[in-house]
Write a structure and sequence with these properties.
two-stranded antiparallel ribbon; about 35% helix; globular
Length: about 210
């Protein structure tokens, strides 16, 4: 990955705004060209884009250095959803659920690299497969917390699978395929959506239960 553009620790809001808008503009162009289906999913989510901008700008005195993170499902991820779920994503009735799904793909306060997600904790007992435990077992996104783990292969109907070298995020075990630096943002290409599968239950309903 090429070097990220890091914002200074102390800067005025006036200095920071051009950098933030440049990064967001670069990111939208990048997503449009490389992950068009995902960009279509999140482009209208004003809460996500506003939170990213507001977090980066801060109070005009302290500017977070870490940037932000995006998990971008690739074209295959959307193909694997099937026709019904893709239609649900495009249905205006499901806008609240779609925005919630999209929010799980953003971390607003820091750029989390794949290398960081792979860090191992040798102070704890190894897993059943003999691998060191990962230091990061979960990450907080704008939608909520999602698990982080190792990829698995083999086995039968979920039993007997062995841990691999890949890193997966979310309940659907979306594997990180490749990572890119866009401005002060890290984009991880993943092969599935990282949002909780349970959110699909609320499609074609008027509102997600208990939502504001």
């Amino acid at each position: 990955m090429r070097s990220a553009i890091v914002l200074p620790l102390r800067a005025t809001e006036e200095d920071a705004i051009p950098e933030i808008f440049n990064t967001i503009s670069e990111l939208e162009t990048f997503l449009t060209e490389k992950y068009p289906a995902f960009h279509t999913l999140v482009k209208g989510n004003q809460d996500v884009w506003k939170t990213i901008k507001d977090t980066a700008i801060g109070d005009g005195e302290e500017i977070p250095r870490g940037g932000f993170t995006v998990f971008a499902p690739n074209a295959k991820a959307f193909e694997n959803l099937g026709g019904k779920k893709n239609k649900q994503l495009a249905d205006p009735r499901n806008i609240e659920t779609v925005e919630k799904i999209g929010a799980y793909h953003f971390i607003s306060e820091e750029a989390v690299s794949a290398e960081r997600l792979r860090r191992e904790d040798w102070t704890k007992p190894k897993t059943a497969d003999g691998n060191p435990v990962l230091k990061v077992g979960g990450i907080m996104t704008l939608g909520g917390e999602i698990p982080v783990g190792r990829s698995k292969s083999g086995g039968f109907i979920g039993f007997g699978a062995k841990e691999g070298d890949g890193i997966v995020v979310g309940n659907d075990n979306a594997e990180i395929i490749e990572s890119f630096t866009v401005g002060n943002c890290i984009v991880h290409e993943v092969d599935a959506l990282v949002s909780p599968v349970i959110l699909w239950r609320y499609c074609d309903q008027l509102r997600i239960p208990f939502s504001s």
